[in-house]
Design a protein that fits this description.
By secondary structure, this protein is mainly α. About 90% of the residues lie in helices and about 0% in strands. Keywords: Membrane, Transmembrane, Transmembrane helix.
Length: about 55
């Protein structure tokens, strides 16, 4: 798998986690769960972007 493909997949997975955090926010689920999902999602998306920019 190329670096561009893996970076884009990581960004997609990260945005799915961010969407889950937003869904938790809309459902009034505890803020700690929202924060964890948001941080994990931003971490995946950021790392995917790093891979695309530096190795793609």
């Amino acid at each position: 798998m190329s670096a561009s493909t893996s970076g884009l997949l990581l960004m997609t997975i990260g945005m799915m986690f961010v969407g889950g955090a937003y869904s938790f926010y809309r459902q009034k689920i505890t803020w700690i769960a929202q924060l964890i999902l948001l941080l994990v999602g931003l971490g995946f998306a950021g790392y995917g972007l790093y891979i695309v920019l530096n190795y793609g």
